[in-house]
Amino acid sequence: MMRRIAVLDAPTNLGLRPPTASSVPGCAKAPGALRDHGLLARLRARDAGCLTPPRYDPGDWRPGDGVCHAPEISAYSLALADRLGAIIDRGEFPLVLGGDCSVLLGSALAMHRLGEAVGGRIGLVFVDGHSDFRHPGNASYVGAAAGEDLALVTGRGQPDLAAIEGRRPYFRDIDVVVLGIRAQDEYRLDLQAAGITTRPVPALRAEGAARTAQWAHEQLVDCAGYWVHIDVDVLDPAVMPAVDAPDPGGIAFAELEILLAGLVDTPHCLGVELTVFDPDYDPDGAYAAEIVNTVVAGLAPVVAPGAVPPRLLPAGPVAPAPRAADSRPEPEPLPAPAAVPAPAVAVEPIGPDPTAGEDAGDDPLGPGLLRRAPAGDEPDPARSGIDIA
Length: 389
What we know:
The protein has helices at 30-36, 39-43, 70-89, 103-118, 149-153, 159-162, 188-194, 201-207, 209-219, 253-264, 286-298, 300-303, 356-359; strands at 5-10, 46-50, 93-98, 122-127, 176-179, 197-199, 225-231, 269-275. By secondary structure, the chain is of the alpha/beta class. The chain has an 8-stranded parallel beta sheet, with helices on both faces. Strand 5, helix 7 (188-194) and strand 6 form a beta-alpha-beta unit. It is globular and about 55 Å long.
């Protein structure tokens, strides 16, 4: 048995500011660029199509107007959540090709629906070079959803984005693990105050990518499953400059490959999204080819013989979401979310299977824990081409 990957294009650029007054962000071209390098064939994935976004048009938006393109992002998120729900219902593993980081809102909405359907919580592993945690409680104004996506999916911000269908938050603070932000991230103290678990690049490198993946998995032991968000700006600009906001101090491709492989090597990982690659900064396609190589190798555990589809079981009662310590205003009451039919597949809690000792040979899931990569699999940072001083 193996898990089948379904690739869904989400080529939205609605969450980014325009690079210049007369241009639009190029990350909408990313899915096509990655497909051109044989991504689907190499993954032997099902083509789940493309969800076309609304037109990019900031119009007369000005600071203080709220998030730019908010109505369009909200509508797109609803449509993306529907598409993801259908993929997961088929027992498949979704790979979403963004687009900018605002695609996380649609994924988050789909995960919240799923958690409600199975009576458990879904977690988030947020692999990103930036915390994307700007919100009205810590900034003078908001505007670009791609720089605010983590804040929005944890319930901070305007209700038309942070509380679609009356769901708020999509992920609880304690169910989020942030990996790969820079040591001096602007909002690192806000993450700490909110109780969001983080491992910046220096700690990730010190522990190693394989052990970091295991550690992230352990942080979400109380969740029924988790979603993985990857912004390619987690990579150092020395090896990946084709992003809208390159920031020194990132990781190498080899480290991202090992991290991704560790995160997906469990039936509790429900899917992955890839964001912010901009082919406009990759004229010869060399960076697209490197991304495809990394994704194919990183997702190898998903399609390996014996890989098990998600098995969703109730994870116990859902505790009330705690209020985060920020200054956002109390939202107005919203309508109750519509009932969501139970999915055709089910997720069991991430922790060890209490029955594994009784008859582990009959349970293809075994203890339900990630396998650590051998120590020899860790890349040598000194040979990565990145200055880690």
